[in-house]
Structures are given as structure tokens and as C-alpha cells.
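Fresh eyes needed here. Kindly weigh in on this sequence plus C-alpha cells:
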Amino acid sequence: MVHMEAWLPEEWNERFLAVGTGGLAGCIYYQDLAYATQYGFATVSGNSGHNGTSGSAFFQAPEVLEDFVWRALYATTVVGKEVARRFYSAPHRKAYFMGCSQGGRQGFKAAQRNPEMFDGMVVGAPGLRLPGLFQFFTRWLREVGTDLEGKNATVGVEAWSAVQNETLRQCDGLDGVEDGIIEDTRRCRPDLSKLECGKVGAPGVCLTGKQLDLVDSFFSPWTVNDTLIYPGMVHNGDEASRATVLSTQTMGYVLEWPRYVSRQDLNWTLDQWTPADAVLAVQQNLFNFNTYDGDLSAFRDRGAKIIHYHGQLDNLVDTLVSDQYYDHVSKTMNASPSQLDEFYRYFRISGLQHCTGGPGASALGQGNGSPPPSDKPEDNVLLRIVEWVEGSDGPDSLRGTRFVNDDKAQGVDYRRKHCRYPKRNVYEGNGDGKDEDGWECVD
């Protein structure tokens, strides 16, 4: 059953906003309700059709899964708009959506299936091709392990740290400054053979040839019998952190999807997994859960807009997913980047992990608990989508903020503008990279 809340501020800005969820969660996102209503939006959040953080409600209940895939957001939005109309005795002027991860997928599903619902969207790190991602998690746990500090891990945490250090050594300076942040992971293709045990110059913590082959396989597209399961990972200079997250925070997805959805076997265990499970999960695509339709022309033709962002340090949903979806839309619609710019702009955010956090200028005003840098559209992506939809030019970059010790109260450490895809950021200044004007977006 769909549950929802509508928060209706006294000082209404005549705009409606729906916010997305995350993971398999059936939870109302109170932090985003509070965030958006402070700016005057009539804001709604729903439980995606079930309660709790588990997917157990999907078991032998296809109607609940369909709610999760698309119907719950649709119902929440339709009802929420009517609640706001009756409360204010007036219709909204514009309708917006904001979500990240599962919420980002919900946003794209709405643009693909119900393009009439929203005039503008801020979508982050969208979980597109999500069944394939769950299978990627499963393969990781089977082949790498759940305890990176234990003896049973095939590639332990120290080895992943060596991979990270070598990646930064080879790639950090490609953007013009060595600051611990890789600005464009597309250009980072490190030669990890230098880490092989026994080779001249190998570090104290080295990897065997077998370990290197396994590591390399996770940075390559994964196919089973010509079926693409997942596009792989990018080298981003945060490999040790990501390895830890993948080994410790993914078991719920790994177990719940086959138990409650693909296999519908409550006794299914990780030991039973085979690559055939990966093919099954991807090819089922129940209710088009992959959310990979590339034709957004109906959304575009309404004059609606999308700001899409993805952290290049994302340790759950890889940036490649967003890169490839943007390219898929471009190919499907036969539209060049300049033509897509009319309604759809995508930004790769250096130093941003999954939705929020990370060592870079990652605060964008994106909600999800991330403190807004300011109430100015140039610093706040939610306010920037409003500005674009309602008459301004679209953003050429998104301005991110890094706070001192990640604490807004301590002030700003630095700001950096993140380029509109497919452009990339290069440093042409003379400092340590913290001077905002030293960066340029280039082809």
C-alpha cells in the first residue's frame, strides 16, 4: 500500500516537488521534505508502495514490485498535487522532482513513462540497470569476499590500497594538478602490472598475477553468454574505500533480490549463485525495472528539463552507468550533445561519492542530508533547475562546495565548477587547485 506525506509551507512559492527514495527502501524521506519546504515548495514523499528497508514485500506480490518500479511515485505525485491545490485553493505553477540513487532511477522512469508529471528534475546517481548491479554485487562477494581484512579475501584491503595508490600516482596529475582528486575518470587507465609481485619496482604490498587478473576483470564490462550484466567500474583513485563498501554494505541486495523476486526462493543462499542467476535477473526486467529507455522526446517536447549529476567517486552505482545512459539517449534520439543541452544536461562530479559526501567540492544543494552551500541558484542545484525551467539559460557547469572538515559551520574550504558532459575539467592555474578560476572546461 502506498503511504505518503505532504508538507505544505505557509509561504508557498506556487511550486510542487516530489522527492525520491533510495535502495529498496519503502521510507518517507523526511530530510528532503524539510530541505525543500524551507524554500517554499509544496513537497511530497512516499514509501514506494511498501514499508521498511527490505524487499520482502515483493515476494509473490508483483503488484507491490510494480508500485516500487513506477506506480507509487505516480500515485504520490497525482494525489500530492491535488492535496496542494485544495490546501492553497490554487493550482501549482510548476512541478519538480528531486532524487538520487533509487530516487534518480525513479526520476528517469517518470521522464520515460509519465513525461507529463514534472517540468524539471534533479536526478543523481540513478540506479539504472539495477538488477545487473545487484548481480555485480553478488559476483564481488563470491570472488573477492566479505572480509577484506580476513585471510579468506582473495584481494585484501592492503592490496586494494596498493591499487588505489598506483591509480593516483598515474592519474591524479592528468587534470593539471595533484590534489588527490581525479577530475575525469574516463582518462584514467592505469597500468597495474607494476604492482605484480616479483617485478622490479613492485611495492612492499604487491599482487599476484592471479589477483591482478581478478582486479582487472572488475574494471571491464561483465558479460555472460553475450548478455551484458554490468558495465564494470571506473578507476577513480578511491579503490580501497569502494572495495570496503562493496564487501560490507551490499549483502542485503545480494540476498533479497533472488529470494523475493528473481528466484522467489526464501531459502536461497549466496553459495547457490551461478552466472545463470545473473542472466536471469537481467533478462527478466520486470515492469521494465532496468529503466533504460532512451527516447525522452515526449519529455523534451513539453519544454521540461533534466539536470543529471553523478559522483566520480561513487562506491555503489558506478559513474559508467550515467555516462552510458547519456550516450544511449543521444544515439536513440539522434541528438548531439548541443541538441540534448536544450533539455538534458549531465554533470560528472569529481570528489563526490554516492549522492553525498567525499573529499571534493561535493555539496551542490542536492538534498539527501548534504548541507546547501547557499540559497543562490549558482550554488544550489535545486534552485538552479527552477531557474532553468522558468526562463534562464541552462547551466554550463554545477558549482560544488567543499566545507572545512566537512562542516558548514567552519566555512568554505574551496569551490569548484563541474563541467557539463562531455567536457572535462583541467587546471590551468598556478596554485594547489583550490582556486576556482584556475579550472577550465575543455573538449
Observations:
- The mean pLDDT is 97.
- The CA atoms of residues 80 and 86 lie 10 Å apart.
